[in-house]
Backbone:
């Protein structure tokens, strides 16, 4: 698979929706993750990311304008031991709770499906990073309708056991704008990852569509020590 320029991948799509990027920094030292959200409606755009323990949570920027919280207020990132869970919905909690009971990532997601937001049936995208005593691996998943059929769920899991330095994978909910919104297709794109967390974060934030972007979270985890640092960007502030 061709290694694609992350900036071009992001700027070339006006509405990827929500996206997860996971990989390894160019110097090989850090596990890298990013999660962003975009919005077209006032309800979707009325959000910010806030820290919540070791993870983050979405929150209404203006509580008086919050309409339906069911699909927009959730914890995108949670940490369970040496696992970091990143998703675009409340399946974060499903994965966390099931893995706490020794259920695997894949089995946990078998209990969930795409979002019930007809006619889009937004895919649920999820990532799992494991950093453990100098080793690092990650997985990605997408649950999506079978070409818009609300009765059929397609489930895909991608596993990366030996992430290469300077490379990552990028998965997102939509292929672009539309009505209904077209679900993501294919394997997560292979993209470049830079050395520095601020370089990585700025590259993502500045190449997302200015009108539609809402929030971005980025984390680098030191593979040797497990220590991490994070960045949050909110359009509303």
Residues:
């Amino acid at each position: 698979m061709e290694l694609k320029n992350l900036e071009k991948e992001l700027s070339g799509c006006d509405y990827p929706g929500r996206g997860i990027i996971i990989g390894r920094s160019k110097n090989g030292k850090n596990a890298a993750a990013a999660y962003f959200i975009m919005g077209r409606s006032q309800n979707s755009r009325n959000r910010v990311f806030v820290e919540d323990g070791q993870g983050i949570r979405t929150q209404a920027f203006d509580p008086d304008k919050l309409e339906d919280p069911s699909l927009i207020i959730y914890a995108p990132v949670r940490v369970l031991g040496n696992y970091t869970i990143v998703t675009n919905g409340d399946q974060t909690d499903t994965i966390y709770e099931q893995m706490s009971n020794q259920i695997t990532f894949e089995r946990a997601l078998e209990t969930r499906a795409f979002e019930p937001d007809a006619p889009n049936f937004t895919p649920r995208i999820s990532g799992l990073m494991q950093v453990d005593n100098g080793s690092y691996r990650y997985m990605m998943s997408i649950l999506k309708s079978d070409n818009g059929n609300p009765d059929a769920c397609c489930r895909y899991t991608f596993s990366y056991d030996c992430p290469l330095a300077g490379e990552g994978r990028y998965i997102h909910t939509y292929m672009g704008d539309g009505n209904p919104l077209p679900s993501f297709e294919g394997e997560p794109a292979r993209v470049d990852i830079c050395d520095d967390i601020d370089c990585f974060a700025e590259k993502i934030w500045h190449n997302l569509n200015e009108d539609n972007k809402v929030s971005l979270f980025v984390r680098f985890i030191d593979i040797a020590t497990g220590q991490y640092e994070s960045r949050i960007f909110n359009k509303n502030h």
Summary: Helices lie at 6-11, 42-45, 91-100, 105-109, 197-207. The chain has a mean pLDDT of 97. Residues 6-234 form a domain with the Glutamine Phosphoribosylpyrophosphate, subunit 1, domain 1 fold (CATH 3.60.20.20).
